[in-house]
Amino acid sequence: MSISVEGFIELGYLGVFVIAFLLNLAPFTNPTNPLLVLLIIQVTPALNPIVVGILVALGATASKILHYVVAYYTARKVKVRVFENSILLNRFGFLAAFIAAVTPLPDDWAAIPLAIVGFNIVKFTLGFLIGKLTTCITAGILGERILWLLEESMGVWGSIISFVGTIILIVAALVWRDRIEKIVLIVFRKLKLIKS
Asked: Could you give the CA distance from residue 91 to residue 180 in angstroms, rounded to a whole number?
């Protein structure tokens, strides 16, 4: 028996949560979740796009909590002192979690350092969840409107253009991910949010 994305999607809303959780589990390689929402809406138009956005956000957040917990206990076990007593991370941890969640960058650049300094896991979870809910629900609402507009104005061709456009957006996000990450790191360094 093989496991496929279609198999998870056939599970409905539970499948959406599971696929979001599993895709976000691999450190530093997680998908751009709003694009995942758009793809799921395109493949399964019967699902409510807002609920899909919420479930993708919850799945992504659950996997980042797991990353946080692993990094936290690993740092305690090996006595990592890289970020020890970091006032900046403790002061702006909620904001860092939120920014990590709303950008298309891998989220682990914030989750792991925050775990190492022992930033409050509830504040981390809330910051991250609010960020993911913001982007994923927005993607669900806009995605539904765009699909409706294309289908109304162009019929079957609208659906085809929408599907191809979604694939192009996903590929573009994957191709330009490194460039986006470099730009964000440069901005963070200029704002002195991180050291060089």
From this structure: 25
What gap in Å lies between CA 156 and CA 70, rounded to an integer? 47
CA 187 to chain centre: 20
Query: Which pLDDT score, from 0 to 100, does residue 184 have?
Result: 64
Query: Coil, strand or helix: which one is 85?
Result: coil
**b/e code 176-191 from CB counts within 10 Å (16+ = b):** eeeeebeebeeeeeee
Greatest C-alpha distance within the chain: 60
- Local structure of 100: helix, strand or coil: helix
Query: By mean pLDDT, which of 6-10, 42-46, 52-56, 105-109 is the weakest?
Result: 6-10
pLDDT at 129: 93
Amino acid at 53: G
Q: Within 10 Å of residue 61's Cβ, how many Cβ atoms?
A: 27
Q: Distance between CA 27 and CA 56 in Å, rounded?
A: 17
Residue 105 neighbours by CB distance under 10 Å: 22
For residue 52, is pLDDT > 50?
yes
pTM for this prediction: 0.69
The token pair at 107 is 């989220």
